[in-house]
Amino acid sequence: MSLDAEFSAPVVLGSTENKNFSMTVAELNDVLSDANIKSYEETGVYLRLNTGSEVSNTILFQVSKFVVTPPTFTSPDNGFSVVITDTNPDDIALTLTWEDPKLLLIVQ
Question: β-strands 59-64, 72-75: how paired?
Answer without folding.
Answer: unpaired
